[in-house]
């Protein structure tokens, strides 16, 4: 495919409600939408670098810089026969995985559309529906949290994840377990704790949690192995896993027993698939993490989550859980049974609503050969 034109858009979308984690409160989400035009086909991708370097060191500004000055020049005007070939062309760039993943996603869409197949099919997906969960930010009070959980359960969500931080943790877990003894429940600390908090996590062992996500350092693998050995509840790593190599290290060290896969964090769908396949061979369940994506990113996420070893419900919720109006049509819905349909049309399988996209664009730049 001859890569003729690439466009970047810095978008900003207001969240339906503020999202509070141990990293702070987000009111809106800034990402980059990547559009690739090749031989009459348009592909779309989303880079999940955020406005702030709190979850990852990458930001919209660093991703824009890396895309504009290194990634785009390495493929623009070239005739590329596969996604692997494109990845090779920019393999000299170290890190900056969210920037890479946004471009790679648009290329996946181009290649799937050129073959007239869905992204799910091209990735090796085996399901037409995926099980979905919801990630709930830290609430001010226990009654507010219970109400949120009730509402999401009524919408069908199969699994509840709550964010925790020191001072906002065990009391929420206890209250939810009392109110909802049987739901699938997990917690996400986003690296807010240290090994010295081990007793808190031992206490959590009593509440039948599916997993504890990223309790310790955002780049740590070693200390998580010490914590995991003392716990019954599986640890799941998010922030610490940037590659297949990190995954292998974490599993061999028994630092975690579940892996959260986010294509942005690991550099794209290709690396995500390698991690998925490795974990399948090692009997390590994986699930799909989210980055509050717009419908463009969500479409790719749903496709990847249709692979067989995504055996736990993902952080892939309905468009309206995040935004009043999505930038794709149709928007993503959750079925009453807590599943989401995997798009079957070619590529991402949804249409970009250009009017809405224009409305949320704060900066736009076109690169031509
Ligand atoms: O840690 O999983 C996380 C959102 C932004 C950054 C980090 C995380 C999250 C979420 C939201 O938990 C998941 C979603 O997109 O629904
Ligand atoms: Mg997380």
CATH class descriptor of the largest domain? Alpha Beta
* Associated small molecules: 2-succinylbenzoate, magnesium ion
Q: Quick one: CATH superfamily of the largest domain?
A: Enolase-like C-terminal domain
Q: Give the amount of beta strand, in percent.
A: 15-25%
| Order of SSEs | EEEHHHHEEHEHEHEHEHEHHEHHEEEHE
CATH topology of the largest domain: TIM Barrel
> Mind describing the biggest β-sheet?
7 strands, parallel
Q: Give unreliable regions as ranges.
A: none
- Average pLDDT, rounded to a whole number, is 98
Rg is 20 Å
The chain-level structural class is: alpha/beta
Helix content: 25-40%
Structural domain count: 2
The CATH architecture of the largest domain can be given as Alpha-Beta Barrel
Count, helices: 14
Major sheet: arrangement of strands: 5-6-7-8-9-10-11
Cα distance spanning the termini: 14 Å
How many DSSP E strands? 15
Question: What are the SSEs and their pairings?
Answer:
Layout: E1 3-21, E2 24-38, E3 41-47, H1 60-75, H2 83-89, H3 97-114, H4 119-123, E4 129-131, E5 134-136, H5 142-155, E6 159-163, H6 170-179, E7 184-188, H7 198-204, E8 212-213, H8 222-230, E9 235-237, H9 244-252, E10 258-261, H10 263-266, H11 269-281, E11 286-288, H12 295-304, H13 319-322, E12 328-329, E13 339-341, E14 351-352, H14 354-360, E15 361-368
Parallel strand pairs: 5-6, 6-7, 7-8, 8-9, 9-10, 10-11
Antiparallel strand pairs: 1-2, 1-15, 2-3, 4-13, 12-14
Helix pairs in contact: 1-3
Bound molecules: 2-succinylbenzoate (OSB) and magnesium ion.
């Amino acid at each position: 495919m001859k890569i003729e034109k690439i466009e970047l858009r810095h978008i900003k979308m207001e969240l339906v409600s503020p999202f509070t984690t141990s990293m702070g409160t987000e009111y809106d989400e800034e990402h980059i939408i990547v559009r690739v035009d090749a031989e009459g086909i348009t592909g779309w991708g989303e880079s999940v670098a955020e406005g702030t370097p709190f979850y990852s060191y990458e930001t919209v500004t660093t991703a824009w810089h890396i895309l504009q000055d290194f990634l785009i020049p390495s493929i623009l005007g070239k005739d590329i026969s596969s996604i692997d070939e494109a990845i090779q062309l920019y393999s000299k760039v170290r890190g900056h995985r969210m920037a890479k993943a946004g471009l790679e996603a648009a290329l996946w869409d181009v290649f799937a559309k050129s073959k007239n197949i869905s992204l799910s099919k091209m990735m090796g997906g085996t399901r037409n529906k995926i099980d979905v969960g919801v990630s709930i930010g830290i609430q001010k009070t226990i009654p507010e949290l219970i109400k949120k959980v009730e509402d999401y359960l009524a919408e069908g969500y199969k699994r509840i994840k709550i964010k925790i931080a020191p001072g906002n943790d065990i009391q929420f877990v206890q209250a939810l377990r009392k109110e909802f003894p049987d739901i699938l429940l997990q917690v996400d600390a986003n690296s807010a704790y240290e090994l010295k908090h081990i007793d808190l996590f031992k206490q959590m062992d009593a509440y039948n949690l599916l997993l504890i996500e990223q309790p310790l350092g955002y780049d740590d693998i070693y200390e998580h192995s010490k914590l995991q050995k003392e716990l019954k509840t599986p640890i799941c790593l998010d922030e610490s896993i940037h590659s297949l190599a990190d995954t292998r290290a974490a599993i061999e060290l028994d630092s975690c027993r579940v892996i959260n896969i986010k294509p942005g964090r690991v550099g794209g769908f290709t690396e995500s698939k390698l991690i998925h396949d490795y974990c399948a061979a090692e009997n390590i369940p994986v699930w799909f993490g989210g980055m509050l994506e717009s419908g463009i990113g969500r479409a790719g996420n749903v496709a990847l989550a249709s692979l067989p070893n995504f055996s736990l419900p993902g952080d892939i919720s309905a468009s309206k859980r995040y935004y009043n109006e999505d930038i794709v049509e149709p928007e993503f819905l959750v079925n009453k049974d807590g599943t989401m349909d995997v798009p079957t049309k070619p590529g991402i399988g949804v249409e970009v609503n250009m009017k809405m996209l224009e409305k949320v664009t704060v900066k736009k730049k076109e690169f031509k050969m």
